[in-house]
Design brief:
Blueprint: E1 9-15, H1 22-30, E2 37-43, H2 50-55, E3 62-65, H3 73-81, E4 88-91, E5 97-98, H4 102-113, E6 117-119, E7 124-126, E8 135-138, E9 146-149, H5 150-160, E10 176-178, H6 180-189, H7 198-209, E11 212-215, E12 221-225, H8 230-233, H9 239-248, H10 265-280, H11 282-285, H12 292-307, H13 313-318, H14 320-323, H15 331-350, H16 368-376
Parallel strand pairs: 1-2, 1-4, 2-3, 6-11, 7-12
Antiparallel strand pairs: 4-10, 5-12, 6-10, 7-8, 9-11
Helix pairs in contact: 5-7, 6-7, 7-10, 10-12, 12-15
Length: 382
């Protein structure tokens, strides 16, 4: 079966001028026995040698597409999705990786169960950057496959968590979703993605169309964090300018009217996406109330950790009257949720998150391809 004759799976890699990491990602995607998948590289009008790199791979499973002009991330994802021929779709980033042979196992799992949504535990690999060597943040153990109730996860995220633990919901990014789900979203709403965070939007949309997901229990892909990725940019001094440019690509995009606008826009992007998705699917989310107090607790954690904006708990409490012009805010509940989230974060820092495995924690490989080779026990060949 050729890669374009109705493949079982479409692996989509949106990219923009990440020529230094993309070749490693592509090599891992192709390190599979199966021919029953395609790899779509959606080059968002890169001005580096991205096209030459992709064309250097003489493999019929790869398809290079380019919109011919610079798009927002949302529009590039939508553009790429319209070219997918697979029955199932998964997105990965251009600094991420697929474990050798993992798509072979995923294919067997899909053909054996015919589920709508598949998720898996996902290691996190930090590329060398800012003079620091590669690091591994998380290597999960392999477990038995299990069924996940997606509506329960949505309730945990929206009315209870205010966005907390959103990453637990499969979203096509590092998960496989039957293509008729995004097709149904497009048919119902006019397009698939409706906010600045396409992965977050899909996390909120998937439970509307699928009651359960199958957690495979084994690792299919690895999340990479590199110098040019959003996670890497968050720690840079020019992160404010980056997020300003990021939002400008959406033209006159307006943050959800219930959100407090007097904080840096980067902090509002995820809650905005959740609220936009709730508005798009009122039949599912109409009975759920978004937990703004828990949202503020989560924003404070991000603010004091990743984003490093000058905003304290006391600052938030002092602004409570201004905040209440946009949505309900209860000081006591905010402090309670803050304490709870910080306690969980402390527990995660204390609890070992990397299982001993061939030195993965001590001296990880300096590129993600070699890392997944070691992870799978495969020999490294240059």
């Amino acid at each position: 079966m050729s890669s374009r004759d109705n493949p079982l799976l479409s692996v989509i890699i949106p990219t923009r001028e990440h020529a230094e990491t993309l070749p490693y990602t592509l090599r891992t995607a192709l390190d599979q026995t199966s021919r029953n998948f395609e790899v779509i590289v959606s080059d968002n009008f890169s001005q580096d040698n991205t096209a030459q790199i992709v064309k250097s791979f003489s493999d019929s499973r790869i398809q290079l597409i380019n919109p011919g002009r610079r798009l927002s991330m949302r529009d590039n994802w939508d553009f790429a999705l319209q070219h997918a021929a697979g029955d199932y779709v998964m997105f990965i980033g251009d600094d991420d990786a697929i474990v050798p042979g993992a798509l072979d196992k995923l294919e067997a799992s899909i053909l054996g169960t015919h589920g709508l949504v598949y998720s898996w535990p996902r290691p996190v690999y930090n590329w060398p950057m800012d003079g620091q060597p590669a690091r591994v943040f998380y290597v999960p153990p392999t477990t038995q496959a299990s069924q996940v109730n997606l509506e329960n996860l949505a309730r945990a995220v929206v009315p209870r968590g205010g966005g907390y633990r959103l990453s637990l919901i499969p979203c096509m990014y590092h998960s496989a979703v039957v293509k008729r789900i995004p097709d149904s979203i497009r048919e119902r709403t006019g397009r698939v993605f409706h906010s600045t965070q396409p992965d977050v939007f899909m996390s909120m949309a998937v439970p509307v169309f699928a009651k359960t997901a199958i957690d495979l229990g084994y690792c299919v892909s690895v999340a990479g964090q590199s110098q040019k990725s959003n996670s890497g940019i968050i720690g840079r001094p020019d992160r404010h300018e980056y997020f300003d440019k990021f939002i400008q690509e959406y033209g006159d995009y307006k943050i959800h009217p219930t959100l407090f606008p007097e904080i840096p826009i980067g902090l509002n992007l995820t809650p905005d996406t959740i609220l936009v998705a709730m508005d798009k699917f009122p039949d599912f989310y109409g009975g759920m109330k978004f937990n703004y107090d828990a949202m503020w607790a989560q924003l404070f954690r991000e603010n004091s950790g990743l984003f490093k904006y000058n905003l304290s708990r006391l600052d938030i409490i002092r602004k409570r009257q201004q905040i209440r012009r946009y949505h309900p805010f209860d000081t006591g509940r905010f402090l309670l949720y803050s304490a709870y989230i910080q306690a969980l974060a402390l527990r995660n820092r204390i609890r070992p998150r990397i299982r001993p495995f061939r030195g993965l924690a001590d001296q990880p490989a300096d590129n993600i391809r070699d890392f997944v080779k070691v992870l799978s026990g495969s020999p490294i060949r240059r």
